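Before a colleague's protein record goes any further, I have to sign it off. Thanks in advance; the entry in question is below:
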Amino acid sequence: MFYDGLHFWGMHLIWWLVWLSVILWIFAVPYGIPGQRKKHQSPFHILRNRFAAGDLTLTQYREMKQILENDQVIKKG
């Protein structure tokens, strides 16, 4: 009936393109998949984590935070 070359391959071609685009999307956008890539953390976040872990004293934390804040002002200005 409709099994000549054009109609038969047309529908299969569409499904191949759909599956190919899904597979490419999975590998091109790995941020949505847990454990694939770590998101970039800001320097403030890293500093806060180090202070929370006890790697830094309060004075060290305040000094480093001040340095980062001054660096942000210089970059914006």
Notes: Residues 40-77 form one domain. Helices lie at 5-28, 43-53, 58-76.
